[in-house]
Structures
1.
Amino acid sequence: MKAVLTAMIVVVLTAIYVVGLFLVWDVFNVEKSLDDLMDKDLYAAEYAPDSPTRVDAVFDGKTLTLDEELLIKDYFVYWYAGLGAKKAENISRFYSLQTSFELFDELAFDYETSLAASCPADLSFDECTLTVNVKRRHEVTRSGKIEIDLELSAQMNYNGTRTPGVVRGEKHSFVLITEDKDLRILEHTTDRPSYYFANKGLDRVLSASRLIRSDLNYTFFPKYTASALAMLTEEAASASFDPPSISTYPAAEYEYDRSTAANAAIKGFSSSGAFGEYNENDANFVSRCIFESGIPMDSQGDRYDQWKWYDDEVNTERKKTGCSKSWFDREAFYRYVRDNEGFGMAAVQTASGGGEIGDVLQLMYNGDAVSEFMITGIIADGAGAVKDYLVSNDKYASVSLRTLGCTDIRVLHIVGYNTANI
């Protein structure tokens, strides 16, 4: 009897173990973790991106160790090789085991490559050059962590357009750590727009489940990043551009020189000169491009009605008398466009598909403008309907709007300018 009872207990415990194993496999996504571990083992062996895109990278700025430079270089090579082929590469292999930053990086990368693959124009590329400007390297002796801040510049020669895509000084921060004698990425953050919207998408998914990130550990994260990716790609696929809706434009004595403004945005500025930088430097940059086209600064009225950098003399001290908020602040610029009459810029908000080259495009999230660009190219179908824009600002030139990851935009159409109060 005792033997039978023992056998029954063994059977019950075995059943519980098997059921528990399957639950762990499903809920905690152990299969994915094992696949990641297998892929990470490849890091010590010869392994190359599964992409025909050639990516060359050079470093400047502060000096890194050879291992640090190789790790960061390989990370960006995989990233841009994947974008070039519009196919996600395995960047998780460069990460420390079981860090949520790895899973979020995968989400952002999968999201951006899926956007590139669904783009109406062929934005694949066979070659890409990268410049990695290291701004800061700090070794935390107590923890063994290495903090690295850098700015990434890149040029991609798209197959589907004559205009190359350019990245200018995109900010990245890494925290590196040594594990089992191999250097790994522990954390990575960037101001890349697709990261911003992937980040917001994940928070929306967690909020719907009444969770915040601190509630989750590594094993739970894949479930929610997968849900976020599905939601974001579905929203991107359903996004469309509304046709132009403006019947009457504001009065303008002089036309807007669109090509000059757009060329300034694509080329960028090699020197700020009297134009300093603000937190929202994308808006500052766009204002400079508009000014480059010949539209005069507007110093009439009080400072809330103005669009200008200086008074009678150039002012580089950022005083209220020297620069209006509308010059460097996205929402203030929108209010100026909406309210200005008479002297100065004549502009109006238009439908998402009503933009022209030289118009201003703002990325929106929850009613706020989170980034600003100038439209420097239009991708349309045979009937002339807009399917995508190429946009430029201080950090990007001729990049696809769709690949930025934003599905809500505000387009501000610039008509011209007036020199009299009419």
Note: The two ends are 104 Å apart (CA to CA).
2.
Amino acid sequence: MENAIIIVILVVILALAIGYIVRAKKKGAKCIGCPNKNCNGKCNK
């Protein structure tokens, strides 16, 4: 029973993370989580 609860919690966390990424991409974010609002997608430089 505890395995099922752990699996459900992990699935919920994964679904929320995917939902956040999808919403951010629809809003036009190039770098998700980047603090720079005018990011041009080259944050690693």
Note: Residues 2-26 form the longest helix (25 residues).
3.
Amino acid sequence: MQDAIDACVIGIVETFAEQGHSGSSAAYVIGILDKVLRFEPVTPLTGEDDEWVVHAYDDECYAQNKRCGRVFKRRNGQAYDIEAVVFRDPDGFCWTGADSRRDVTFPYTPATEIVDRPAS
């Protein structure tokens, strides 16, 4: 398994190197690639109807954004980001929960606030 992963990474690096980027274009491409590989949108979410997959699980989790899976919509139309806040414990462990949700307005560029929790 590790050999296959190593080969994939080497292939990506070789392709990137063959493209001949300068320092500034390399940084630009890396920034976009980082977002894409994390399944994050490159441009702001619009909230338009074609951006949503309707699940209709309940009134709270009615639809999920196709471009950013961490953004959901309630049946009443209000969207929210389930990873808007990430809590970090003193040992570095990070987690999300119900308190991580924040309502959003469109256009929306997903962002995460890190909240350091005090030692207990």
Note: The chain has two domains: 2-37, 49-116.
4.
Amino acid sequence: MSVHELDARRMLCPMPVIRTQEKAAQLKPGDTLAVICTDPGAIHDIPAWCRVNGHEIINIQQQQEEIRISVLICDE
């Protein structure tokens, strides 16, 4: 298990989800991916992508305009 980070700040929909999908494809089950973004739509889009692709949301934190979404990569 390892922790990875994806900087998706200043990217607009659908790019945070696309970059999350690309990065997740490089990871192994049990890894954690922290997506840092500024697009408020990502709060809904990334969890929806996780439900479709069998991954889990660990945590969502928002401080001012920055959003940090932690995703547990699971078997698909």
Note: The chain has a mean pLDDT of 96.
